[in-house]
Amino acid sequence: MDPYLYWMLTAIALVIVELLSGTFYLLVLAIAAGGAAALAYLGFTFGVQAGFATALAVLGVGFVYRFRTRTGKGGRSINAIDVGQRVTLESWIDEPQGLARVHYRGTSWEAKVIGERGTDKTFYIRSVDGSTLHIASE
Fold first, then answer.
1. Residue 37 · residue 11 · CB < 8 Å
2. Which range among 1-5, 21-25, 90-94, 111-115 shows the weakest confidence by mean pLDDT?
3. How far is CA 37 from CA 18, 25, 43, 52, 127, in A?
4. DSSP code, position 2
5. For residue 19, what is the enclosing H or E element?
6. How far apart are CA 138 and CA 134, in angstroms?
7. Together in a domain, 44 and 99
8. Most exposed among 66, 83, 85, 107, judged by the fewest C-beta atoms under 10 Å?
9. What is the pLDDT of residues 5-47, one digit of tens each?
10. Residues 61, 25 contacting (CB under 8 angstroms)
11. Largest Cα–Cα distance in the chain?
């Protein structure tokens, strides 16, 4: 198999994984792999291909990091639709650390309890961090 096909398969795999994660970092790596594939197709040596992919990846990741920190989308995000909604505690994953499994929107979610835990099984969503709900009793 030609070297450019390996680079393209890598780029396609990275795009697929990026669609599952939504971080844009893997998209940058996929673009870097696509650039290396273009160089491989043009007949450049593997060292040039890898160096170009590395340079694109470093620049792209730096750009995405800077963009996410400037726009405030780098860390925790708040989904206004979910904030304030009621969830029901199903079970504890790690009670001392406040990690629990809760029922919300017809399915189970991982949650981090903020503040006092009490004995009540009803909590309210305060924020969302990826797929983890941050919940509190009031």
1. yes
2. 21-25
3. 19, 19, 10, 10, 41
4. -
5. helix 3-21
6. 12
7. no
8. 107
9. 999 999 999 999 999 887 889 999 999 999 999 999 999 999 9
10. yes
11. 67
Rounded to whole angstroms, what are the CA distances from 101 to 45, 79, 133?
51, 19, 10
Q: What is the token pair recorded at 27? A: 């998209």
Tokens of 5: 């096909």
Give the helix ranges, DSSP H, for 22-133.
Answer: 25-41, 46-71
Q: List beta partners, residue 109.
A: 102
CATH, residue 122: 2.40.50.140
Number of domains in the chain: 2
Q: What are phi and psi of 127, to 5 degrees?
A: -165, 170
